[in-house]
Design goal:
Layout: E1 6-11, H1 16-26, E2 32-39, H2 43-53, E3 57-60, H3 66-72, E4 78-81, H4 83-90, E5 95-98
Parallel strand pairs: 1-2, 1-5, 2-3, 3-4
Helix pairs in contact: 2-3
Length: 99
């Protein structure tokens, strides 16, 4: 993809592999951009990551945590929830990392 950023959908962003993926992407800002962050239920860490990464979308698998997540992220970041949201998020980027 010469001349454009490769978008990354990072599902499982709050775990060890997810945080390492964020570090790798941050080291190559001219090549990659995380467009989607997703986590199972850790909305506090997910929101912290969203402040740093500035994705287009954040997704939490646990639907009961969606309102809390919405209150923690910037209003210009889309919030989605539930297992189906993970599947939809995966298809919206060039690369999917399922951590």
């Amino acid at each position: 993809m010469t001349g454009s950023l490769t978008t990354v959908s990072l599902l499982g962003s709050t775990g060890s592999i997810g945080t390492q993926t964020i570090d790798v992407v941050a080291a190559e800002p001219d090549r990659f951009r995380i467009s989607v962050l997703g986590a199972g239920s850790d909305v506090v860490t997910l929101a912290e990551q969203a402040r740093s990464v500035r994705p287009d979308v954040v997704v939490v698998a646990d639907r009961s945590r969606a309102a809390e997540l919405r209150s923690l992220v910037a209003s210009d970041i889309e919030v989605d929830a539930g297992p189906d949201a993970f599947a939809a998020a995966a298809g919206s980027a060039d690369v999917v990392v399922n951590a």
